[in-house]
């Protein structure tokens, strides 16, 4: 089973496909 954190990390690495992720995982609310 894939963890939510792993999914969010992939989204962060996808160069900001979602507004709150951006290119930087540190900008993700779950990684703050």
UniProtKB/TrEMBL annotation:
Superkingdom: Bacteria
Protein name per Swiss-Prot or TrEMBL: Uncharacterized protein
Organism name: Limnospira maxima CS-328
